[in-house]
Design brief:
Alpha-Beta Plaits, alpha+beta, 34% helix
């Protein structure tokens, strides 16, 4: 490993990445997006209008213009409030996506240069049984298993990291390190020990739709549920609205919205997982700071294992800079250790939120077809 002296003469330079987003961006739009992302829930359009001192019709026009430019928002799901945890698996062998059980799968990609990455969302009390059954189905076990109950959602600050004059995203590794070191030590989030609400398939269909389109109406959700779900009961607007109010909105299942980052990159980035060990309070500081930059995605934490797994979309020319950045944090004793896992972004697959996980047992789901499980690929 490098010694402290290796960094003395390093110039942690300002870097940038041109985006196709630059054709449309302006200070007013940046301000609008940042305000929209500041809510900890899905805001009503009237709330956004009041916050920004705009007429509701103006807000709708801005939203329509954003959509016409090919940009989209997504809802941020707090899986812990649904009684679930994120489970990340790293395999030594290549697993063919066409042969994988997708019942609870959210993300898949080959690991570079060889291996496989899977991210599942699993009921908290079923992790062990799920992994046992999954390994039997695959005929192999994961080399690394990370059970991660806490999610720190990414909310990229365009106001801070986008330069309107040069039309570039800005990145200063020095500034990120300084901010991490000077940020306040927050209380650690408490893991939710038990579900107070019993969720059903209607609730999970609502969550799925809100992740894909957080500003859709309950009326549209009702229509889609009637067309796509295979429930043996009549669905109507009043029923769906009651489920939304009582089980989704009032329980804080959707923790706000963010701009979909993948569309912001002109050149294909490399998706990177950084597995970081350290004091949980410091890991939380790292995740909170990184979550504001456009290159970094959601982070997942385990307080019991003192582990943070953070995702990033990094331009290839900045990959080694990321390693230098993490090593600097280790040398400065902000973190204890780190390692990066690089994924094949061209073969990355994402899947919509599962809707059958509280209707069927794990073993039942692992033995049903994608069609029976209503699997929806997003890539």
């Amino acid at each position: 490993m490098s010694k402290q002296g290796d960094y003395d003469d390093l110039h942690w330079s300002q870097d940038s990445h041109t985006s196709q987003f630059s054709r449309y961006i302006n200070p007013s739009l940046i301000d609008f997006i940042d305000h929209l992302q500041s809510f900890e829930y899905i805001p009503e359009i009237s709330e956004v209008a009041d916050l920004m001192d705009l007429h509701t019709s103006t807000v709708w026009k801005i939203m329509k213009a954003i959509k016409q430019k090919g940009l989209e928002f997504q809802g941020l799901i707090d899986v812990a409030r649904l009684g679930m945890v994120e489970v990340i698996l790293i395999f030594d062998k290549f697993l063919d996506i066409t042969k994988l059980p997708k019942c609870l799968l959210r993300e898949y990609a080959p690991v570079l240069p060889w291996g496989s990455y899977l991210r599942y969302v699993v009921p908290k009390n079923s992790v062990e049984s799920f992994l046992t059954s999954l390994y039997v189905k695959l005929g192999t076990e994961a080399r690394e298993v990370y059970v991660l109950p806490i999610t720190v959602h990414n909310r990229p600050s365009l106001k801070e990291y986008y330069d309107v004059t040069s039309k570039r995203f800005l990145l200063s590794w020095d500034a990120l390190i300084t901010r991490i070191k000077t940020s306040p030590r927050e209380s650690l989030p408490k893991e939710i020990s038990e579900m107070r609400v019993r969720y059903d398939e209607v609730d999970l269909h609502i969550v799925r739709e809100l992740e894909l389109n957080p500003f859709t109406s309950v009326k549209n959700i009702t229509r889609k549920l009637s067309e796509e779900s295979r429930l043996d009961r009549v669905l109507n607007y009043v029923l769906v609205l009651r489920h939304y109010n009582n089980h989704v909105r009032n329980r804080g299942v959707i923790r706000g919205v963010r701009l979909k980052l993948e569309r912001l990159f002109l050149d294909p980035p490399i998706k990177t997982l950084s597995v970081i060990a350290g004091n949980p309070i410091d890991l939380l500081r790292v995740s909170k700071v990184l979550s504001t930059h456009v290159y970094f995605l959601d982070s997942y934490m385990s307080l019991s294992d003192n582990i943070l797994v953070t995702q990033a979309l990094i331009p290839p020319r900045l990959i080694f800079d990321l390693s230098l950045f993490l090593e600097k944090l280790r040398i400065d004793e902000v973190i204890k250790s780190w390692r990066n896992i690089y994924l094949d972004n061209t073969r990355l697959r994402k899947y919509a939120f599962p809707v059958k996980l509280y209707t069927l047992t794990v073993d039942e789901m692992l033995n049903l077809s994608d069609d029976e499980l209503m699997i929806k690929e997003l890539t």
